[in-house]
Design a protein that fits this description.
- The protein is of the alpha/beta class and 380 residues long.
- The chain is 44% helix and 14% strand.
- It has 14 helices and 13 strands.
- The protein has a 7-stranded mixed beta sheet, with helices on both faces.
- A hairpin with a 2-residue loop joins strand 5 and strand 6.
- Helix 2 crosses helix 4.
- The longest helix is centred in the first third of the chain and has 24 residues.
Length: 380
């Protein structure tokens, strides 16, 4: 059985090219003229990032005052937040690009966003586990908590992996104390552990352990010391509970890969990055740690470990070679296409296609010249 349909007798290449050109121009207009929709938390995020920026600058200036070395190959942006490749207080291998990426004040805005996703609201109490491995993320977390008017309770560890706060003269306890004394932050750790293997510096020589104890002592923060990793976890939870005074925590924020906080690399690999809840977490392979305890209590965990993944998620620079300004990145809003441009473009393309299929004499003359004949119909 034959099917009847109609088509123009002749559609010129000029018509087809014009239609394709119109489609291209419409697409180009939509792509080139998007609009940025500001996040409803933009003012809080900007304020948190500004506080983090002041803190990062203050630490950088302090390290320059102390004449700590700057290695351009490690820290091209000269943030002075990148530690040495190796030192006596370095615990394990670190990823340089991850540490460089973390030195970005806009991570404070990211933490605000993640805490909000976790359901944290002004006035809530949160627990924070800081580590020397990512001092810039420690700063971002504290800045976010203070800007959101939260009640943060912090327990830190002193040691660090490569490229973190592993300068023996400027470790995380030193940084935290300096920022507090300068009035840039209001939060101090309620306790600090040695960190490293077993959260107690297993394998470090007696003189290095003595150096760590001196660092914690000069910070003015009590030492969290335990015989085993398990008892270190128990002691952390006891201190968190005691500091809360019966108040429920709204979230636990883990920074880095502390053994007692999240069971190191293995715990991070299982739990992942960002906001974690008991419903979406597989705790079967995670041994006792602070993060697991909070999850089992129904408290969401905000895990800050993979700075590159977080940077990609929020449009932040990865391993930048210059200092990053406040306000950079998609964390403050999202870029959306102008719908009216897309609708207008589609309408114009459909209209043009209709006109090509049903050309008037004037259109025929435009594309075929003065000798053009009205396009008839042929039946096939």
């Amino acid at each position: 059985m034959k099917t009847l349909y109609y088509r123009p007798k002749k559609v010129s290449k000029a018509m087809l090219l014009s239609l394709a050109g119109l489609a291209f121009v419409s697409l180009l207009a939509v792509e080139l003229f998007p609009v940025k929709q500001d996040d409803k938390l933009i003012q809080v995020k900007l304020a948190a990032a500004a506080q983090a920026d002041r803190a990062l600058t203050a630490i950088g200036d302090r390290r320059l005052e102390l004449e700590r070395p700057w290695v351009k190959q490690l820290d091209p942006a000269k943030t002075m937040m990148i530690g040495p490749t190796m030192s006596i207080v370095t615990t394990q291998v670190g990823h340089l690009d991850a540490k460089q990426t973390s030195v970005n004040p806009n991570f404070a805005a990211v933490v605000v966003d993640l805490l909000h996703q976790a359901g944290v609201r002004p006035g809530d109490r949160i627990a924070i586990g800081c580590t020397g491995s990512f001092p810039a993320l420690d700063i971002a977390t504290i800045a976010a908590a203070e800007t959101m008017d939260l009640k943060p309770v912090v327990i830190s560890s002193a040691t660090s992996s490569q490229y973190g706060a592993n300068d023996p003269e400027m470790m995380w306890p030193d940084m935290e104390r300096w920022l507090f004394e300068q009035g840039i932050i209001k939060t101090r750790s309620i306790a600090t552990s040695l960190g490293g293997v077993g959260d107690r510096g297993v394998g470090m020589t007696p003189d290095v352990l003595e150096k760590l104890l001196e660092t914690i002592d000069r910070s003015g923060v009590p030492l969290l010391r335990a015989r085993t990793l398990y008892t270190s976890v128990v002691e952390r939870i006891r201190l968190f509970d005691e500091a809360a005074g019966g108040e429920k925590y709204a979230a636990y924020v883990n920074v880095g890969g502390g053994s007692a906080s999240i069971r190191g690399t293995k715990g991070n690999a299982i739990l992942g990055n960002g906001v974690i809840t008991l419903e979406n977490a597989d705790l079967s392979g995670v041994k006792s740690c602070a993060a697991k305890t909070f999850l089992e209590r129904g408290v969401p965990v905000v895990n800050l470990i993979n700075s590159i993944e977080l940077a990609n998620d929020y449009g932040l620079a990865v391993a930048p070679i210059t200092k990053v300004p406040v306000g950079d990145g998609n964390v403050y809003g999202r870029v959306v296409y102008r719908r009216y441009l897309a609708i207008l473009g589609i309408a114009m393309i459909l209209a043009a296609a209709w006109m090509i299929m049903h050309p008037t004499p004037a259109i025929e003359r435009l594309f075929h010249g003065k000798n053009a004949q009205p396009a008839g119909q042929m039946m096939v």
